[in-house]
C-alpha cells in the first residue's frame, strides 16, 4: 500500500483496459461499495449509495442538465458532467459530488486516477479487503 502526498491510501483496483470509455466497475472496499465509471477519458469514483434513499448509483445515468436561462428559453449544459440517480432523479456533479439542487447535499466522491495502465483509487484509510462486485449493467 502506498500513501500519496495528500495522506490518502493508493489502491489499484483494476487495469485500464477493464474500464474502457463508458464502462463501469463496482468494488467493495471494507464494506463500502464504490462505483467507477470512465466518461470522456476521465475516471470518476463515487459511493454506490444515493444520499436520498440509498439506491445504487452505479445504475445512474451520466447526463447533462438544463441550466438557468431566461423565461421561455431552454439551455442544456454540463454534458456528461452529471450522474443522475435512477430512482428519483437527483443530479450530482461527478467531480464534486454536490447535488445540483443544493450544495448542502452530496454524493461521496473519491479520487480516481489512471496510472501506468491501472485504475487507482485514493481512500482515507488503508483497506483491509478489496473485492470486485457484480452488477447487472444494460447501460
Ligand atoms: S434514491 Fe436517489 S433521488 Fe431518491
UniProtKB/TrEMBL annotation:
Q: Which family does it belong to?
A: Belongs to the bacterial ring-hydroxylating dioxygenase ferredoxin component family.
Cofactor(s) annotated in UniProt: [2Fe-2S] cluster
* Keyword tRNA processing among UniProt keywords: no
GO molecular function per UniProt: 2 iron, 2 sulfur cluster binding; metal ion binding; monooxygenase activity; oxidoreductase activity, acting on paired donors, with incorporation or reduction of molecular oxygen
Which residue ranges does the record assign to the Rieske domain?
Answer: 11-121
Domain of life of the source: Bacteria
This chain belongs to the protein called Rieske (2Fe-2S) protein
Keywords on this record? Answer: 2Fe-2S, Iron, Iron-sulfur, Metal-binding
> Which Pfam family, just one, is annotated for this protein?
Rieske
Amino acid at each position: 500500500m502506498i500513501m500519496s502526498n495528500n495522506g490518502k491510501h493508493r489502491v489499484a483496483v483494476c487495469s485500464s483496459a477493464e474500464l474502457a470509455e463508458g464502462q463501469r466497475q463496482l468494488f467493495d472496499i471494507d464494506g463500502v461499495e464504490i462505483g467507477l465509471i470512465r466518461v470522456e477519458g476521465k475516471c470518476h469514483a463515487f459511493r454506490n449509495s444515493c444520499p436520498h434513499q440509498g439506491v445504487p448509483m452505479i445504475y445512474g445515468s451520466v447526463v447533462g442538465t438544463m441550466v438557468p436561462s431566461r423565461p421561455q428559453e431552454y439551455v442544456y449544459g454540463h454534458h456528461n458532467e452529471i450522474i443522475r440517480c435512477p430512482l428519483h432523479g437527483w443530479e450530482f456533479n461527478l467531480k464534486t459530488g454536490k447535488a445540483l439542487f443544493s450544495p448542502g447535499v452530496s454524493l461521496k466522491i473519491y479520487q480516481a486516477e489512471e496510472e501506468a495502465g491501472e485504475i487507482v483509487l485514493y481512500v482515507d484509510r488503508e483497506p483491509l479487503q478489496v473485492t470486485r462486485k457484480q452488477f447487472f449493467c444494460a447501460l
